Amino acid sequence: MSIPPKYSSLWGKPARMRAGGAVALFASLTLSGCAPTFVHQPAPLPDPDPDVILVTLSGRCGFTCQSADNWDYLTASGGTAAISDWLRQRGRHVRTISGTAQVQDTYRSRESAAEQHGYPWVKAQLAAALAEFPRAQIIVMGHSHGSVFGHQLVRDFPATRFRLLIDLDTQCLLWTDYRQSPYAGGCAPDPAHRGQRASDVTPDNVEFNLEVQSSGSDVQRVGQGLVYSPIRDRVPNIRPDGTRRGIVTLRSSDNHIMMPRAGSQSMTLVRGALEQLGF
């Protein structure tokens, strides 16, 4: 799939782009808020001595399931590999850390046969990787509730510089699932930041922030079935000082549920941003 035109002049400006593109085939009827059922793919193998650490965080498993069953659909859909493989093709050595919007360390989900890893596990893995590879550039990519946890991760490492934070349709709907957890404030409005939710404020230890927001039809016909997802992000991120320094917000023709797939336009936009930033 072709890379979109360069948009270096957009970094740091309140700009948005809409680009057309085909949506990858998904040949089953899916009625869910966040994550469809995918064919499971093995996680990418770690490279020795990585110069890039890629952290991916999947969101809620959907409206019809419980957050206890959140699972790593970014890996299962090929979205994680779509980015890590692209980086490797450009000569990068990549260490991938993939987890879910879950307050448990490791757990089982009824949505997947594989053992799942929640946010505490991801945080511990990143701490270990940073200690071993302190010069590696860090990319964090989250989808839906996973983007909220992506911002949490950045805040939990205030002394660490993150090269790129990627937010795929950040969502706070159903965040009440976490109201009894240490992360309850992840979607809370912050009066110090113009009332923006914490998930819409890009911390200063992030060099660049790419927001990709869904704009496709709630119901998309794909193959022989339909993909339905009515939710989308419409709040542009800001910095703590109220500016949009180093932030770009783009619109994808995907709907919310299609964004994590390897063949989605959202992943094309992510690769375009990585190319522009010199990865």
UniProtKB/TrEMBL annotation:
UniProt-listed Gene3D superfamilies: alpha/beta hydrolase
Stated name of the protein: Uncharacterized protein
InterPro entries: AB_hydrolase_fold (IPR029058)
UniProt-listed PROSITE patterns: PROKAR_LIPOPROTEIN
